[in-house]
Design a protein that fits this description.
The chain is an alpha/beta fold. It is built from ten helices and six strands; from the N terminus they run αααααααββαβαββαβ.
Length: 371
């Protein structure tokens, strides 16, 4: 795992350096074109390239800090620093957007006439191609190594290609028709930058706050765990992210009520080891749900209650069922759709229904969260 993280860091750094080199070159060319042709749109596009280069620098710093070894103060490592670096990149993009908007509005109020040459148009057109290639490359690498900063930088580069294309279009309109759209295109560029910045901020905040793990991953892990013949189901899988691809989690497994403690111990160790080998995820806790297998009456009770609960609209799952015939107690969890208008009323109704069917039992029913 350590080698994988080191390789990932090298890929992020290498890709970011390429981004810095391309953006600095484009910024220099565009700044020269913008100043010589008196074009605010081209100058703002150059500023945007500089902000992209700075974003790549922050991405490198974030990747380096995130790769630091775990210590007594941060026992789960420093991977979450990447989320902070992605947020900083987003703030830079927002700042560039608002600055560009202010300058463009000034040019609308006090317009200046641009003057494009053939060389200028060729450089702008080349920038469009360069940004398209850079954006696809950076975004592709970002997805491959699961780097939010690289994905954001790649998406930003693709947006820049569209922005540069709009600048080129306004230059051609002025060259052939004498109509100056510079300042208005500058406003459009600024709005696009601000929009992209806000989206990047929201993505970064989601990562920092802790968002729902992708259903594809959790489903794959549960199916993998259930390949064990003694496991009837895997539930309540919780994964805590300590950086991209760095998860620590816990899960409940449902096993026969005939298993002994030593058998459970062996099973838990095997599940934890197999999940780590397959997914690189550390399961710090494996809870146990006991499955009634020794009594036909209790098996029938389970089947009847499951049918009754699942017949309610908006109920996704019932799990963790266990009934004690001697003490007349029964426990299980129910997952109800978050989008249901009145989840509490639905839960109360199904609880009353179950208790009415089995008045001799004391029920402990929990409305679980859908994770």
């Amino acid at each position: 795992m350590a080698e994988n993280f080191q390789d990932r860091e090298k890929i992020i750094v290498r890709t970011s350096i390429i981004g810095i080199a391309v953006n600095m070159m484009l910024a220099a060319f565009k700044a020269a074109v913008g100043l010589l042709s008196n074009s605010i749109a081209v100058v703002l596009d150059a500023v945007n390239n500089l902000s992209d280069a700075l974003s790549s620098v922050i991405t490198i710093i974030g990747a380096k800090l995130a790769g630091k070894r775990a210590n007594s103060r941060h026992p789960f490592g420093h991977g979450r620093i990447e989320y902070i670096s992605a947020l900083l990149v987003s703030v830079i993009v927002l700042y560039a957007g608002f600055t560009s908007l202010a300058e463009s509005v000034k040019k609308i109020i006090h317009p200046e006439v641009p003057d494009y040459s053939t060389v200028s148009l060729v450089i702008i057109a080349s920038a469009v191609v360069a940004k398209l290639l850079l954006g696809r490359y950076v975004k592709g690498v970002g997805k491959k190594v699961n780097s939010a900063s690289l994905v954001a930088s790649g998406a930003d580069a693709l947006n820049d290609a569209i922005i540069s294309l709009s600048v080129l279009a306004s230059a051609l309109v002025y060259t052939f028709f004498g109509i100056s759209l510079e300042a208005y295109v500058g406003v459009l560029i600024a709005v696009m930058i601000i929009k992209a910045g806000f989206e990047m901020v929201m993505d970064s905040v989601d990562d920092i706050l802790g968002k729902r793990t992708e259903n594809e991953l959790t489903s794959e892990i549960k199916k993998f765990i259930c390949r064990e013949p003694d496991i009837y189901g895997a539930f309540d899988l919780i994964l805590h992210s300590y950086g991209p691809d760095r998860y620590v989690g816990s899960v409940h497994i449902e096993v026969p009520d005939t298993m002994t403690v030593d058998e459970l111990d062996q099973l838990e160790r095997k599940v934890a080891g197999d999940v780590y080998q397959e997914f690189g995820i550390i399961l710090t806790g494996i809870g146990i749900y006991s499955h009634n297998t020794k009594d036909d009456e209790l098996r029938q009770m389970r089947s009847d209650i499951s049918r009754s609960v699942m017949s309610h609209e908006g109920v996704h799952q019932i799990h963790g069922f266990f009934a004690d015939k001697v003490n007349k107690t029964c426990s299980f969890d129910v997952i109800i759709d978050y989008d249901l208008k009145d989840r509490d009323a639905k839960f109360s109704k199904l609880c009353d229904e179950i208790k009415a069917k089995y008045p001799e039992y004391i029920f402990n029913i929990t409305m679980d969260i859908d994770i």
